[in-house]
Amino acid sequence: MLTDDELKRIAAEEHYRHSVRKAIEAQVPPPAPAVPEKHSFGKKLFDFFNSSVGMWLLSSVVLTGGAAMLQQIQHDHEIALKNREDLTSHRFEIQHRLDSMTFLLKRAKTIGDAKNALNGVFKSSIPLTPELQNRSLASLYLTIQPLLAGTAKDKTAEAFELVKQLEESELLLQAQPDDKPLDSGELAKLTKVITAIQKLHFTP
Questions:
Q1: What digits encode the pLDDT tens for the residues 123-172?
Q2: Does residue 189 contact residue 169 with C-beta atoms inside 8 Å?
Q3: CB 90 within 8 A of CB 144
Q4: Is 198 within 8 Å of 98 (Cβ atoms)?
Q5: pLDDT band at 64; cut points 50, 70, 90
Q6: Where do the domains of the chain lie, and which CATH numbers do they carry?
Q7: pTM here?
């Protein structure tokens, strides 16, 4: 059994511990109040699109935009295909006419023969493409020029200028009688221009 002195000593120790604890607690700052959670714009946007209304809106936009994109791709493809077909048909028609003129000029003896050879400048007697039969060489080159780029476009522009020279030569021949012998110098000049045009071939 504890004596009175021991009880007093224990009570004094408890009182001391209590005083120390109070002093320590007084030195520790109180915890800061909890900050309410803030929802960022991105979080709100995510929550919206995650809702039924947001999903419906998103699917509508995606479907509409996707359909429009597919239509545009198909349209661009059709235009590119049409341009390629036009380039091919015009290219073969041009080459066919130039080859025919070269063939006829090699056998030309008179002004009439030369006139006949240069008919290909304005129309084709045996067209490869019927709708191009009555088109002049110059118009064929003008049609394909916007469809080309780079050196091919430059060559086409140069060929167009040479074709205009052929047109002028043909006009001068028209003023002369058909039975007049064809001058060798004139023949060489015409052949040279046509050969120069043939060298300016392009690839569609």
A1: 998 878 899 999 999 999 999 999 888 898 999 999 999 999 999 999 99
A2: yes
A3: yes
A4: yes
A5: confident
A6: 81-199 (1.20.120)
A7: 0.63
